[in-house]
From TrEMBL:
A molecular-function term among this protein's GO annotations: NAD(P)H dehydrogenase (quinone) activity
Species annotation: Bradyrhizobium sacchari
Chain ranges of the Flavodoxin-like fold domain: 5-219
Matching Gene3D superfamilies: 3.40.50.360
Protein origin, superkingdom: Bacteria
Keyword hit for Oxidoreductase: yes
PANTHER family recorded: NAD P H OXIDOREDUCTASE-RELATED, NAD(P)H DEHYDROGENASE [QUINONE] 1 ISOFORM 1
Gene Ontology terms: cellular component: cytosol
Region of interest: Disordered: 265-286
Family, as annotated: Belongs to the NAD(P)H dehydrogenase (quinone) family.
Protein name: NAD(P)H dehydrogenase (Quinone)
Length: 286
């Protein structure tokens, strides 16, 4: 029996009739059919403000210099963050599972979603927490406010899967998504599941979409049981503190770059949840 979960989907696409919109609906329906509680933050529909500026910190004196991190810390501690940010933080605390869904634009997330992270992941909430000493360097990378919760990405990409392979011109998809998976989700404590990636997203026909939808339904049925990416814990002994260098000898021969920060128990995933089609679409865009 799959336990009931509270799932938050943060959705970032400007067109409700897009492929992303259709996949969001598939995910919501599949999750609700399993008895999970689902909330959706549709950033474009909410007209989400993506830029960080003085308006985010109404208690900041008008003549004070804006230092965003310091202002975020003071506003979080004083409870003076803006209402939209407070609402999203409450959703994150409510949810057992966070899904970020977006099209891959210029090798990253859309600006509106990055702005959601910039504003919602406040100092004292998602970062800047815990003891900083010669033994620990804060509660982060496997620890933190959101530890014990799960997260994953649903991503559409226009390019071919081969373009995002180990030797592909666009670079490996694991590397492109590392700053999000490791730097945004794992940093405040989430257990990060392998991403669900759809390639050739602007060339899906109806049959191709149904195949993707079936895979997505299957993936939504295993959120509680899918093993997370085996990122190394910062305070687990693998890193020298405070230098934050991986101890020598822990990596497999020939491993370098981002892959150093994944433990030996798990290699880079082979995209079991990805699918593309070579035929033209008639009803949906990425």
């Amino acid at each position: 029996m799959v336990p009931n979960m509270k799932v938050l989907i943060v959705f970032a696409h400007p067109e409700p009739r897009s492929l992303n919109g259709a996949l969001r609906d598939v995910a919501v329906e599949a999750l609700q059919a399993q008895g999970h509680d689902v909330r959706v933050s549709d950033l474009y529909a909410q007209s989400w403000k993506s830029d960080v500026d003085r308006a985010d910190f109404p208690s900041l004196p008008g003549d004070a210099r804006l230092a965003p991190a310091a202002a975020s810390k003071l506003a979080f501690e004083a409870g003076t963050l803006t209402a939209d940010v407070k609402s999203e933080i409450e959703k994150l605390l409510w949810a057992d599972m966070l899904i970020l869904q977006f099209p891959l634009w210029w090798f990253s997330m859309p600006a509106i979603l990055k702005g959601w992270v910039d504003r919602v992941f406040a100092y004292g909430f998602a970062y800047g927490v815990g003891e900083h000493s010669e033994k620990r360097w804060g509660d982060r990378y496997g620890e933190g406010t959101l530890a014990g919760k799960r997260a994953m990405l649903i991503v559409t990409a226009g390019g071919w899967q081969e373009h995002y392979s180990a030797r592909g011109i666009n670079g490996p998809i694991d590397d492109l998504l590392f700053p999000i998976n490791h730097g945004i989700l794992y940093y405040p404590g989430y257990d990060v599941l392998p991403p669900f990636v759809v390639y050739k997203s602007d060339k899906l026909d109806e049959a191709g979409f149904e195949a993707v939808a079936a895979r997505l339904r299957e993936r939504m049925s295993t959120l509680a049981t899918t093993p997370p990416i085996a990122y190394r814990r910062q305070n687990g002994g693998d890193y020298l503190i405070p230098d934050m260098q991986l101890r020598s000898g822990l990596e497999d021969p020939g491993v370098s770059g981002f892959a150093l920060h994944v433990g030996r128990s798990q290699t880079r995933h082979d995209e079991p949840d990805t699918l593309g089609s070579a035929t033209e679409a008639s009803a949906a865009v990425a």
